[in-house]
Amino acid sequence: MTKSVTHALVLCAFVAAGSLPALSACGGGKKPADSPAPEASDTSSSESPLASSAAPAASSAAPVDSAPLTQVLLTDSGQITKIFDAANAAPAATMKPNGATGGDALAKGVRDAAKKLAAGMQPDGAMAMGSLKEKQHLQTDITLQPGKCYAIVGYSKKIKDLDLYLLLPPGILSGQDLTDDNRPIIGGPPQPMCPVSSTPVTYKLDIFADAGSGDVAVQLFSKGK
After folding, report:
1. DSSP class of 199
2. Which residue among 36, 73, 167, 196 is the one 20 to 30 A from 24 at the CA level?
3. Do residues 80 and 194 lie in contact, with contact meaning Cβ atoms separated by under 8 Å?
C-alpha cells in the first residue's frame, strides 16, 4: 500500500468519526441534486377567496320586531306606509299632564270609556289633545316600557269615527282600533298590549278623524304584568 493511499485512508477514518468535514475523496462531499421548487398552491379552484376572510361583524342594532302588539285588521303594506307618512307630516297633539283627571268633557269621556275598555288600568303619562277636521291627522310619540301591559283610549264627542294607529318606523303597524265609533281603543281586554322587549320602545301614534270633526283626547293606560 502506497503512502498516499495510507494517508487517504487515515483521513477518511477521521471523517467517519466526525472529527473532520466530509470530503469528496471519502464520498461525502458531493452536493445533492437540486430538487424542483415547489409550485405555488392554487386555491382558486378549491376555495372561495372569501372563505378565509373574517366574517363581517354582526350589526349592533337590534332588529325591529314586526309582530303586532295586539290584533290588527289592516295588512296592506302600502296603506300602512301611507298612514305612517301622514302621521309623520301631521301636527303634534297638545300634551296635557294629568289630563285624564280633569273636569272637562273630554277627560270625563276618556275616563268613562276606560272604565269598560281599560278596566284595571291607570292613566300613564300626559293626555294627547287637539282638534281635527274630517280626514285630518294628529300625532304623538308613545313609549312603552317592559314589564307593563297597555291600552290606548280615545274619545271625541263630535267625531263619529275616530281612528287610532300605533306604528313603528319605517311603517310597521303594531296596533289599531277595531271599531267605527267615537271611543277607539288599542289593546283593550281581553288582549292588552304587553311588550316583550327588554328595553323601552317608542311608537308613533296616529290620531285620525275618519268621519266628522271636533275636539279629541287620547290617553295611555297601563298596569303591571
Report:
1. S
2. 36
3. no
Beta carbons within 8 Å of 170's beta carbon, 6+ residues apart? 81, 84
| Amino acid in the structure at residue 197 | S
Backbone conformation region of residue 187, classed left if phi is above 0, alpha if psi is from -120 to 50, else beta:
left
132 by DSSP, 3-state: which?
strand
Q: Please answer whether residues 157 and 209 qualify as being in contact, where contact means their C-beta atoms are separated by less than 8 angstroms.
A: no
Phi and psi angles of residue 6, each rounded to the nearest 5 degrees, phi first: -60, -40
Cα torsion 83, 85, 91, 93: sign: positive
Domains and CATH numbers, the chain: 1-27 (no CATH), 77-224 (2.60.120.380)
Report the residue count for the chain.
225
Q: Which grid coordinates are listed for 51?
A: 372563505
Q: For residue range 106-126, list pLDDT tens digits in order.
A: 999 999 999 999 999 999 999
Q: Give the E-state strand segments of 135-224 in sequence order.
A: 137-144, 148-155, 161-168, 172-176, 185-186, 201-211, 214-224
pTM: 0.71
